[in-house]
Here is the input.
Amino acid sequence: MILVSLFANLLSGNALSAQDKPWLKNYSSYQKYDGVYVVKKIDVACRSYQSFLVDKNGNKLTPAFRDIGEFANGLAEFVPFELNEAKQGLHGFINKQGKIVIPPVYLATDRFYKGQTWVIYPVNKQFGLSYIDTTGKVIYRIPIEYFKNDFLISKSVVDFVCNQDAKEDIIWWKQKEIFLLNWNFSPFIEKEIKESKGIYHFLYKGKYGIVDKNLVLKIPVALDDIDPKYKFSGQGMERVKYGDKYGFINVFTGEMVTPFEFSDTRKPTAGLFWVKKNNKWGCIDKTGKVRIPFLYDEASGFTQEDRSAVAINGKFGHIDKTGKIRTPLKYQFASYFNNGTSMVRINDKYGYIDINDRFIGKSNYDSALPFDRKTTTAERFGLRYELALDGSETFIGFTGVWNAFFIAIGVILFVIANSYFFKRMQSVKKNKPAKKSP
Here is the structure.
């Protein structure tokens, strides 16, 4: 009953307006906004129509436009009759005096909300998206060039509601699913976004997008993977994936820090990220600046000793955070540093060095493990030793080879002994005299 009553009041209000202002009867539809009216005259539905902004006396404040949208924040979207070179409508904004505040240069937009709205426009072979304020100033521009395989003009469809050019959409079809460059969030999602601790990740049809607390879409719905649990992220940057390449975004603003140009990355250590580009490893900092050139075939994270194990052409050594070589690249293998030591292999034998490339203890082990604790184990000639940080060793047993050898010897001795006792018993039986009959 309440809805019926409200609808009846709305109809009676419109009827009264039409009675009070007979000039409204010259138009097919109208909408009132604080003493001004957006009116529309439709000659042929979906084909021939025009809109005006008029004052309370019916005086036209604008020339004829194809359409005028709803007023919000003092501005209304409008679409003039002039088209662009692609025969598409252009969108701008007027105020309630009919003055053009934002020229019609955009392919799509929406009503203002809390002083901002999005706009779409062509950028080379793609459509781009920015957010503007009520003066037309750009608040944020999505770096659409990073998403070169998406939002292509050639694959888009520009559509609008019949008789309402201001209600337009630019859409892309992907496997029978609609994708948009712009997003308008429901009140429920909007509340969730504003209550989130930082940037908000959302998933749509297998693709991720990122929006900030001000409902500004920072990353379009095109990401193939994100890392909100910081498995590969840190230092204020989050790793994201587009296609087969990785890049980084700022976890506080959602803005891109680096392009998608890395084939692999590692979790940051000592403020630096090891990233792989063109099959070589290098380091960037939290601003995306390259700190260590892309030179290395292998690289490990930096440890508290300010060392990272690196390799070029099969030769291992260590560098510090400045990229300076601290251990010459001469080893067949070098592990990360821990507890002041690194396990190395040279001439097919293992040993341990300190941060000054001096061997600690012996360097003739056949196999070894890094010093992940205060002690470790190494093997030489089939004997297993426990090693201390000073290089001293304590025998703790045999390796599997020696154990197998001892087992084999035991089996052989058992067989020999068993054969010996069997033959002895047979001989005793033969030499035993037969019992005489009574």
